[in-house]
Amino acid sequence: MKYVQIIFSPTGGTEKVAKALTRDWPAVETVDLTDPELDGAKLALEPEDVALIAMPSFGGLAPKLALDRLGELRGNGARCVIAAVYGNRAYEDTLVQMEDAAEKCGFQVIAAVSAVAEHSIMHQYAAGRPDGADRDQLALFAGQIQEKLRSGEVKKPAIPGDRPYKKAGGSGLVPKAGDNCVGCGLCARRCPAQAIDPQSPKTTDGSKCISCMRCVCLCPQHARKVNSVMVSAAALAIKKACSVRKDNELFI
Ligand SMILES: Cc1cc2nc3c(=O)[nH]c(=O)nc-3n(C[C@H](O)[C@H](O)[C@H](O)COP(=O)(O)O)c2cc1C
Predict the structure, then answer these.
(1) 76 Cβ partners below 8 Å, 6+ apart?
(2) pTM over 0.85, yes/no
(3) Which fold has domain 3-164+247-251?
(4) Which of 120, 131, 165, 224 gets mutated to test ligand 1 (max ligand atoms within 8 A of its CB)?
C-alpha cells in the first residue's frame, strides 16, 4: 500500500496545502503534474493505495493542463482526497471538475478540501496564507480524513460546484521578460506549459502560456513581470469578493 500526493503547484501555495494535509502519511510519494516530462501512463495505483490530488483554482476552474496530465494516470480504484486551492476569491467549479477527472481515471473520491493560499497574481489577497491558523485547521481535516480512511468507509460526500461547469476565460496575463533577463533559461526549463523558448527565453508563446506565474515567481533576476496596469484593474475588480477572510472547508 502506498500514499501518493499528486500536485499541480506552479508557485508553491497548493504544495503547502498538500503538505499540511499529508503530513502524517507514511513515506508519501509525490507526482508533479507541472512536469512536462511526466509520463503519467506509467503511473498506475493499486486499489489499496491512497492519494491526494491538489490543484489551484484558475478563474474558478481547475487548470486544463493539470486535468489533462491527471487523466493519464490510472487510479485503479484507489481512494483519493481532492483539494482545490484558491486565492480567497472563489473556487467555483474547481472541485467538481477535479471530482469528475479523478473518477474518470479510476479514483474513488472519499473527501474534498477547499483551502486558501496567497493569490499568485494579486499577492495582497490572502497574503501569507496558509498561515498558522490554516495549518491548524488543515491538521484537523487531516485527522478526520485519516479516520475515514481507517474506517474503510468510501461514501462520497456532496461536493459544491455546478455542472455544466462555468465557461473558461483566460486571464490574458502573459509574463514578459525585462532588460534584466540574463537568458539563463530556468523559466523555460520549469514552465509547466513549455511556453518559453529555451533558446530564446525572452520569447513566450502566448497561445501556450497558462498565466500560472511560475516564471515570475522563480526568476532569480526578477526579470519576468505581468502588465501592472492589467493586474491593478483585475485587483480592483475582485477587491470586494476578496475582502473577507475565507475559511478552509472539508467535505467528508
Ligand atoms: C491564472 C490564475 C487565475 C486565478 N484565479 C483565481 C480565482 O478564480 N479565484 C481565486 O480565489 N484565486 C485565483 N487565483 C489564485 C490561485 O488560485 C492561488 O494563488 C493558488 O494558491 C495558486 O497556486 P500555486 O501557488 O500552487 O501556484 C488565480 C491564480 C492564477 C495564476
Answers:
(1) 44, 45, 46, 47, 106
(2) yes
(3) Rossmann fold (3.40.50)
(4) 120
